[in-house]
Design goal:
The complex is a heterotrimer of chains A (305), B (312) and C (333). Chain A is mainly alpha-helical and 305 residues long. Chain A is built from twelve helices and no strands. The chains are: A mainly alpha (305), B mainly alpha (312), C alpha/beta (333).
Chain lengths: 305, 312, 333
């Protein structure tokens, strides 16, 4: 808006492009003021603590014990009743938090890192004679991976890596990285022509050093947001995979609980469904709110309100 | 936008890439169908015979090239599991999948656009906040949850019990409507959150352009600004979104919905083929999706040119 | 006797900034006569563009508060007009031309359709009439090849052409007042000259009053009849151009003039910048805003806001707002 522009000019707010949209002045304070973002952070932290509790052996340890009757309703023994096999639904729901975080953290970290690396390489070598094939190659790969229908690909990978517990993770990382890579590539191409990069190159710094010390840190805002988005996508994908029978084995997850519940609800047993749905929904909501808040904090001009 | 020739080359490379990777995965690493076909007590000779029939004994490159030629000439063979001709399988299942997924896909996008426009129009007011809040909520609910919940609410005695739980016995408009409603509703609900938020962002971005201020300075009403100026300027990103979400929503979505509701469409067929290692079917599906993607790019490019005068 | 086209009394604009409330326009008053070109001059951030936006009613209530005693356009008080009423005025009785023609026009509509849109809206013409009028307007604005321009899209025209199209659009309904916000700053020098010439003609031919907003004193000297000098939201000097340049009364004006690079017979003069920085609008000092940078500032200047008075020894329409105005430099009055 003309108002915005005039205001920015008049108070000397014209921040250099270098500063806009990175982890810089104002980001932290904006984040602190974003109420929904704080709520999101709170929710995520609570869930994280729960998953830690499971990991350290304090919570949810009775998830596989089949000591109840079939489909018992909620009682003081089993806070949310039992499932078909007499297992405590509440315990299972709690334990699944750890499964969710494990998948979410691994997939989001790896896919974001991979995407950042390949994206940075592609963006850096874009248009450079003799080396531009790196960019072409990465782009081709992203195009190919994006045209393969996602669940077909993931199911196929899961099947190809029969029974290996990390099959699911590999499949997800192999497809999630493309989104990050594309964004990082675009940003790197933008940063490439900035003065500070040009001066680094003029004084003869080697490319990898420039990339890692100067360029990539300026893409952190993209990486943070993408990581949270990938976390959400990973958990959601696990749910579907578990439904298709390709998800976690030897453990329990919300996806597995939901898959179990598909038949149960037709017979009127809703506890399994409700427990898993609620937990899943809350965690996803928390992350989504956090992702939004992060995005708004980094670039307020794109803010929702 | 690139020239036709450049696009063709690009498309070809893409098809090659897709088919190669998919071929690698599904055919090379996929389950071995030999034993499912002839049982465990076969002799070595019989095993060898079947393996030869299924083409397992050929070197990789040979199999890949055969695959490509088969695709190009549309000689797709017959399913290893059922013996039915692949082309007839496709002819049977494709229309079903389209009839199943298209209504939900289109409505989901149109509704998302409408809500996004409304939210952008009333940016900052309570209606905007409501719509944005609902989208975030929608984005946080898993597809599976929506499907199960809708099934319970609409198709069981615990809810309205108006629709069938699964299946696809369509022979008339009314039976079509009975079978397609619950899947369509689930598809709409799942995609609505994402669509609304995306379109809202587009419209907000377009609303803050300089030429909108100019239009206002010449007396344009808010409605004119939105419906004429903002909408038309947003057509390029809208097209991109619409076209490029087809693989994800229509194809992947069909796999899920058909498997869940027991509908005999191409999604279900593909999934069964993956789990049983039915190569001819898989090869055909993969090739099809690759070609589809290239087609989508062509159509999208065409639309860009038609809609934005800046694109030569 | 020229009639007053626009009369502004005590216009103020307060905006919400990251650093608090900012009074970017502080109770300014001025009037614009029919057919005259009034320059509104000042550095970036002095509030001149905001003034224009406020006059047109383009500042949304979520961004800031616009207050005024009255803004008389002919016999209508714009300060009391509803939004619907303002929409009828915009592009009709009062038009605005913006700084950057590159982005001012809608890229997906042809020039012809954009011109026709305005005509159909404000002159009630139908499609065919509007088309014919548009072609007429373009030709009258001196653009040959009007048919081709009608069918062209903004990106196919040069910056200068685009600006001329915008001016033609703005003049379509023979507005009483035309506000031009830095209309030539993004154009090259020769195009700039041509655009400014056009402004000169508009006033004469159609009796349109023009408020020309600029930071460029050269432009003011070229086309304006009178000029207002603005600093930090206040008008500090108002005078006919000749009097202003030959005998500035306010130290700020003198500073601006001194900062213009000049080549004279004695060689190139040193450019003298005004010492100090423009204060942030949310953090303005008491008294005269310019005191911090003024060589003749004293305690009175720092506490009491100078009122607007006639400048001694000069033309009676030469006004200034300073406790210690500069003495008259010319021998005329």
């Amino acid at each position: 808006m003309i108002i915005q522009r005039v205001l920015e000019q008049s108070v000397g707010f014209l921040r250099s492009d270098h500063e806009r949209g990175t982890v810089r002045d104002g980001t932290w304070s904006r984040l602190k003021q974003d109420r929904t973002g704080i709520i999101g952070l709170f929710i995520v932290t609570v869930f994280f603590l729960i998953s830690l509790g499971v990991l350290l052996g304090f919570l949810g340890q009775g998830w596989s014990a089949a000591d109840g009757g079939r489909w018992e309703s909620a009682s003081s023994n089993h806070w949310m009743g039992t499932n078909l096999l007499g297992q405590d639904i509440f315990q299972r729901a709690i334990f699944s938090t750890r499964t969710a975080f494990e998948i979410g953290v691994i997939v989001s970290l790896l896919s974001t890192l991979l995407g950042a690396l390949l994206g940075a390489l592609a963006g850096w070598y874009n248009g450079k004679p003799r080396k531009t094939w790196i960019d072409g190659g990465v782009l081709w790969l992203t195009g190919v991976l994006d045209s393969i229908p996602f669940y077909l690909f993931v199911a196929a990978v899961a099947y190809a890596l029969q029974g290996w517990p990390w099959a699911m993770h590999v499949a997800m990382v192999a497809t999630f990285w493309t989104a990050t890579a594309r964004l990082v590539r675009a940003e790197v191409m933008r940063i490439r022509s900035r003065e500070f990069v040009l001066s680094a190159r003029t004084i003869g710094l080697p490319a990898p050093l420039i990339l890692f010390r100067h360029v990539l840190p300026n893409t952190l805002h993209i990486l943070f947001v993408q990581a949270t988005i990938a976390f959400v996508a990973a958990i959601k994908t696990e749910v579907i995979l578990s439904f298709l029978g390709l998800g976690v084995q030897d453990s329990v997850s919300w996806g597995l609980m939901l898959a179990e519940s598909t038949q149960e609800v037709l017979a009127g047993h809703f506890n399994n469904f409700l427990a898993a749905s609620l937990m899943l929904f809350l965690l996803l909501l928390g992350f989504n709110l956090l992702a939004d808040a992060l995005q708004d904090a980094f670039d307020p001009r794109q803010a929702a309100l | 936008m690139r020239s036709i020739v450049q696009q063709l080359i690009h498309g070809l490379l893409l098809i090659l890439g897709v088919t190669l990777i998919s071929f690698l995965l599904m055919v090379w690493f996929g389950p071995d169908q030999t034993y499912t076909l002839i049982g465990k007590n076969a002799t070595a000779a019989q095993i060898a015979e079947v393996r030869h029939q299924l083409g397992y004994d050929q070197p990789f490159v040979r199999r890949y090239v055969d695959y490509l030629t088969g695709l190009a000439t549309l000689d797709l063979g017959a399913s290893n599991s059922s013996g039915e001709q692949v082309t007839s399988i496709l002819k049977r299942t494709l229309p079903i999948s389209l009839a199943l997924m298209l209504p939900g896909f289109i409505i989901g996008n149109l509704l998302g656009m409408a809500l996004g426009l409304l939210a952008a129009f009333r940016r900052g007011t309570w209606s905007d906040r409501l719509i944005t809040g609902l989208s975030v909520t929608g984005m946080s609910i898993s597809f599976l949850i929506i499907i199960i919940a809708l099934q319970v609410l609409l198709s069981t005695p615990y809810g309205l019990n108006l629709f069938p739980v699964r299946g696809w016995q369509v022979d008339s408009i009314s039976s079509y409507l009975t079978y397609v409603t619950v899947p369509t509703l689930s598809l709409i609900l799942v995609t609505l959150g994402y669509n609304t938020r995306f379109y809202r962002a587009i419209f907000v971005e377009e609303s803050s352009r300089e030429h909108i201020v100019t239009a206002r300075a010449f007396g344009a009403s808010p409605a004119t600004l939105m419906w004429r100026h903002v909408l038309k300027n947003s057509l390029v990103p809208i097209t991109t979104r619409f076209m490029f979400s087809i693989p994800l929503v229509v194809i992947s979505g069909s796999l899920l919905i058909e498997t869940y509701f027991g509908i005999p469409g191409i999604g279900k067929v593909s999934f069964d083929a993956i789990t049983s290692g039915d190569q001819p079917v898989l090869k055909a599906v993969v090739g099809l999706t690759a070609v589809l993607f290239v087609l989508i790019q062509f159509v999208a490019d065409f639309i860009y040119r038609a809609v934005d005068p800046r694109i030569a | 006797m020229n009639k007053t086209a626009l009369s502004v009394r005590n216009l103020s604009v307060t905006l919400q900034t990251g650093m608090g409330l900012a009074r970017v326009v502080d109770s300014i008053s001025f009037s614009l006569q029919e057919g005259e070109i009034l320059g509104l001059v000042g550095e970036s951030g002095c509030g001149k563009s905001i003034t224009a936006a406020a006059l047109m009613g383009l500042i949304p209530s979520s961004a800031g508060i616009v207050k005024s005693d009255q803004i008389m356009l002919g016999d209508k008080n714009l300060a009391r007009l509803s939004e619907a009423g303002m929409r009828r005025i915009r592009g009709n009785e009062m038009s605005m031309v913006f700084q950057d023609p590159l982005t001012a026009l809608d890229p997906v509509f042809s020039i012809g359709s954009q011109l026709s849109m305005v005509l159909r809206r404000h002159r009630g013409e139908n499609r065919r009439q509007a088309r014919r009028s548009s072609i007429e307007m373009l030709e009258r604005a001196g653009m040959a090849d009007s048919q081709r321009i009608m069918q062209s899209y903004p990106h196919q025209l040069s910056g200068g052409m685009r600006q001329r199209v915008l001016i033609a659009m703005a003049m379509a309904s023979r507005p009483r007042v035309l506000i031009a916000d830095e209309p030539s700053s993004s154009l090259d020098v020769s195009t700039q000259a041509r655009i400014l010439e056009q402004f000169g003609e508009l006033g004469q031919r159609f009796g349109t009053a023009i408020l020309l907003i600029t930071h460029d004193l050269g432009v003011v000297a070229q086309v304006c009849d009178r000029a207002l000098i603005m600093y930090c939201g206040r008008i500090v000097e108002e005078a006919p151009v000749k009097s202003l340049y030959s005998s500035p009364a306010h130290p700020y004006t003198a500073g601006l003039l001194a900062a213009v690079p000049r080549i004279n017979s004695a060689g190139v003069q040193r450019v003298r910048a005004i010492p100090g920085l423009v204060p942030h609008p949310a953090d303005l000092p008491d008294g005269c805003h310019f005191a911090g940078r003024c060589a003749s500032a004293d305690t009175q200047c720092r506490t009491l806001v100078p009122g607007i008075q006639a400048a001694d020894g000069r033309n009676s329409t030469h006004l200034q707002a300073c406790h210690h105005p500069l003495p008259s430099a010319s021998h005329e009055d």
